[in-house]
């Protein structure tokens, strides 16, 4: 090998290693971290049922914190390039930081979608299924409220579809019925956050009043969409 060819070989090797480094960097850079979804309404839109300050803190600080901590927790783990749905359904494989923050991200993203200032009414289809599985709409409301009230400490109440039937459940902390660790598994179609951060500024210790107010701000159209996907 003459001197020129030798230098060319060295240079080609140098270039190749630079390209590999750049590729690795751009992969890291391009990997999309989880991001806070925008709300479909203003923070004050659910007043007087859910107050503006609670909504602002809940969305911009609590939900954002779950996302920030989730993005940190997944670095260097097999969860790094997965969707939040894929992480949630196999949550037993991951750390408690991924469970708490991944659950927090999934649950809040879902919760915002089923809230609306123009609540509307459940469709006949949904109402008929509720009556079929809970005897009456009022009985469904009282069963759901009971699940939300009796969840000790922090957690969630859920309306889920399980084998084609509607069912109510509740989960502790940021767990949910899609997780492989859930006692009661199913596809959520409606949820209520009963962590104190969701209601304490306005309702203090009166969780029951917050649960009553919730019926005024449900996005039944969105619940219907969830139902159709789950059936
Ligand atoms: Mn919350």
Can you put this structure into words, describing what you see?
This protein is mainly alpha-helical and 231 residues long. Helices cover 53% and strands 10% of the residues. The chain is built from nine helices and three strands. A three-stranded antiparallel beta sheet has the order 2-1-3, with helices on both faces. Helix 2 (52-73) packs antiparallel against helix 4 (96-113) and helix 5 (124-134) packs across helix 6 (137-150). The longest helix has 28 residues, at 3-30.
Strand content: 5-15%
**Distinct ligands, ions and cofactors found in the model:** manganese (III) ion
What's the overall average pLDDT, rounded?
91
Tally the helices.
Answer: 9
- Head-to-tail CA distance between termini: 70 Å
Spell the H/E element sequence.
Answer: HHHHHHEEEHHH
Residue windows where pLDDT falls under 50 for at least 5 positions? 18-30
How much helix, percentage-wise, in residues? 40-55%
Radius of gyration: 23 Å
In terms of structural class, how would the helical and strand content be classed?
mainly alpha
Total strand segments: 3
SSE blueprint:
Blueprint lengths: L2 H28 L21 H22 L10 H6 L6 H18 L10 H11 L2 H14 L4 E8 L2 E8 L14 E7 L6 H4 L3 H8 L5 H11 L1
Antiparallel strand pairs: 1-2, 1-3
Would you kindly provide a brief summary of this structure?
With 231 residues, the protein is mainly alpha-helical. 53% of the residues lie in helices and 10% in strands.
């Amino acid at each position: 090998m003459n001197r020129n060819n030798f230098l060319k070989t060295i240079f080609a090797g140098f270039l190749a290693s630079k390209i590999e480094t750049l590729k690795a960097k751009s992969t890291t850079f391009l990997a999309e971290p989880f991001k806070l979804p925008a709300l479909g309404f203003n923070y004050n839109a659910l007043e007087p049922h859910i107050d503006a300050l609670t909504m602002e803190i809940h969305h911009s600080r609590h939900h954002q914190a779950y996302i920030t901590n989730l993005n940190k927790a997944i670095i260097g783990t097999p969860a790094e390039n997965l969707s939040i749905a894929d992480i949630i359904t196999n949550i037993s494989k991951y750390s408690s930081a991924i469970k708490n923050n991944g659950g927090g991200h999934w649950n809040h993203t879902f919760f915002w979608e089923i809230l609306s200032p123009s609540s509307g009414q459940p469709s006949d289809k949904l109402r008929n299924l509720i009556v079929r599985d809970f005897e009456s709409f009022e009985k469904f409301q009282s069963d759901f409220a009971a699940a939300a009230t009796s969840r000790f400490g922090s957690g969630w109440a859920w309306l889920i579809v399980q084998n084609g039937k509607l069912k109510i459940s509740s989960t502790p902390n940021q767990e949910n019925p899609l997780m492989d660790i859930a006692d009661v598994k199913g596809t959520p179609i409606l949820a209520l956050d009963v962590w104190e951060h969701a209601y304490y500024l306005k309702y203090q210790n009166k969780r029951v009043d917050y649960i009553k107010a919730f019926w005024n701000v449900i996005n039944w159209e969105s619940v219907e969409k969830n139902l159709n996907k789950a059936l």
